[in-house]
Amino acid sequence: MWTHKLSVRTGDRPSITDLTVRVEEAISGLGDGLLHVFLPHATAGLAVMELGSGSDPDLLDRLDELLPTDERYRHRHGYPGHGRDHILPALISPSLVLAVLGGTLDLGTWQSLVLVDTNGDNPVREVRLSFISG
Amino acid sequence: MWTHKLSVRTGDRPSITDLTVRVEEAISGLGDGLLHVFLPHATAGLAVMELGSGSDPDLLDRLDELLPTDERYRHRHGYPGHGRDHILPALISPSLVLAVLGGTLDLGTWQSLVLVDTNGDNPVREVRLSFISG
Amino acid sequence: MWTHKLSVRTGDRPSITDLTVRVEEAISGLGDGLLHVFLPHATAGLAVMELGSGSDPDLLDRLDELLPTDERYRHRHGYPGHGRDHILPALISPSLVLAVLGGTLDLGTWQSLVLVDTNGDNPVREVRLSFISG
Fold first, then answer.
1. Distance to chain B for A5, nearest Cα, Å
2. C92 touches chain A (CB under 8 A)
3. β-strands A45-49, B2-9: how paired?
4. E strands in C1-134
5. Residue B127: which of A49, A99, C42 has the closest Cα?
6. Closest-CA distance of chain A to residue B126, Å
7. Phi, psi of B22, deg, nearest 5
8. Ranges of each domain in chain A
9. How far apart are CA A56 and CA A53, in angstroms?
10. Less CB within 10 Å around the terminal CB: N or C of chain A?
11. Widest CA span of chain B, in angstroms?
12. How far apart (Å, rounded) are the C-alpha atoms in residues C45 and B111?
C-alpha cells in the first residue's frame, strides 16, 4: 500500500484549509484506486465541500452554534470551551475515502477536500494518505 | 478498478432517496470487495439509515432545525437560505464505503443506502461507484 | 477479502464503547491495507475520538441537545423519543475506513475507535470488519 504524509499549516484560529492541490500533487501518477485520507488528530475533521462563496465561514459559524465555545463541557484541558473541539470529529470524521482515476482525485466541479479545524492551539496538522490500486 | 455512474432523480424539494436497489443492480456479479459511493455535488450527502417508519421526514425536520433555511448565511447564490445546503456535506458526507459480499451490499436488515438532498434546485443527481476486489 | 464479526456489549443506556483493542486483536497479523468497519444497525454510529478526559459524556450530552429525546418524531416505535436514534446514523455514520500498517490500526496518539449508541434497547451490537490488502 502506498502511503504518504503531509504537514499542513492550519494557523492559530478556527479554520477550513483546502487540501485538494496538496493531495493531488502527492498522488500524481498513482493511476486508479481508492485513497484513504486521515487526520491522526482528536480535534479536527475532513469534509468535501464548495469553497470560495462564503460557505467556509458559514460552516464555522454553524459549528459555533452546534458546538458552542463555552463552559458546558466536562473536558477541561486547553482554552475555555476547548471541549467542543473534541466533539467535532464525531460529527465531521477525520477519515474519508476518495476515488482516484488516472492519478487525479475524482471530485465534482464545485468540490474541494478540506480540513476543518476549530482548535487554534494546534497550528500544524498532519494528513495521512493511503492508496490501494484497483 | 470497476466504476459506474448512476443518474438519480431526487425531485424539486428536499428529499431522501433510496439508492439501495439501484446500487445492488449495478454491482450484481462483482463478488467480494469494497464499494466507494460518491456524490460529485456540493449540496447533498449519503447516509445509511432505516426508511419507511417516519425517520426520513424526521431527518429532514432535524436538518431544518440544525441548518435553518434563513438569511444567516454568507453564501448568497440560489434561493433564500440556500447557504444551508452547502453546510450539509460537512455533516452528511458525499463519500461512503460499503462492503460487498457475493455481489450484494453488506447492509443490516433495517438499513438502506440513501441520498440526502436538501436542495430542490438540482432535481437530478449523479452517483459514482468505484469497486475494488478483495 | 478478509472479513470478521465482533459482538460488542454496549449496555442498556446511551453509551460510547471503545472498540480499539477488540479490533486490533482481530486484525493482528494482517499486514498493510484498508479496514472497513461497519455496524449493521440503524440506531448507532462509529467515530474516531479521544476518550477518558470527559469527551465521551460530552458527546452524549451534545447529542441530547442536537437530537432531543422527546415526542417530536414521526417514528413511533420503541421508547418515547426513540425516533432520535434513527437520525443518529445520518450524522454519525455506521461506516468507517481506517488504514492498517503492519497489522496495527493507524490511529493518532489520542484517538480511539468508538461505537456511539444512543439506543439502550439493543444492549449487544455487531461490528463487521472487512480488510483489503494494499
1. 21
2. yes
3. unpaired
4. 2-9, 15-18, 33-38, 45-49, 95-101, 104-105, 112-117, 124-133
5. A99
6. 10
7. -60, -45
8. 2-133
9. 8
10. N
11. 49
12. 12
Q: Which residues of C touch A75 (CB under 8 A)?
A: 53-55, 58
Residue spans of chain C under pLDDT 50: none
How many other CB atoms are found less than 10 A from the CB of residue A53? 16
Report the DSSP beta bridge partners of residue B64: none
Helix (H, G, I), strand (E, B) or coil at C32: coil
**C2-133: CATH topology:** Jelly Rolls (2.60.120)
pLDDT, tens digit, 9 for 90 and up, residues B21-39 = 999 999 999 999 999 999 9
Q: How far apart are CA B44 and CA B89, in angstroms?
A: 6
Q: Identify all chain A residues contacting C34, using CB atoms and an 8 Å cutoff.
A: 1, 34, 36, 97, 130, 132
Residue with the three cell numbers 460487498: B100
- pLDDT (tens digit, 9 = 90+) per residue, A50-84? 998 899 999 999 999 999 999 999 988 888 899 99
Rounded distance between C-alpha atoms, residue C49 and residue C60, angstroms: 13
Mark yes or no for CB contact A111/B41 under 8 Å: yes
Q: What is the DSSP string of B48-67?
A: EE--SSSHHHHHHHHHHHHS
Cα dist. C80→A38, B60, B110, C35 in Å? 38, 20, 20, 36
Q: Which amino acid is at B77?
A: H
Determine the pLDDT at residue B52. Answer: 87
**Chain B residues touching C38 at Cβ < 8 A:** 98-99, 106
Residue at A75: amino acid letter: H
Euclidean distance between the first and the last CA atom of chain C, given in angstroms as a whole number: 11
Question: How far is the C-alpha of A78 from the C-alpha of A96, rounded, in Å?
Answer: 27
The whole-angstrom separation of Cα B113 and Cα B107 is 9
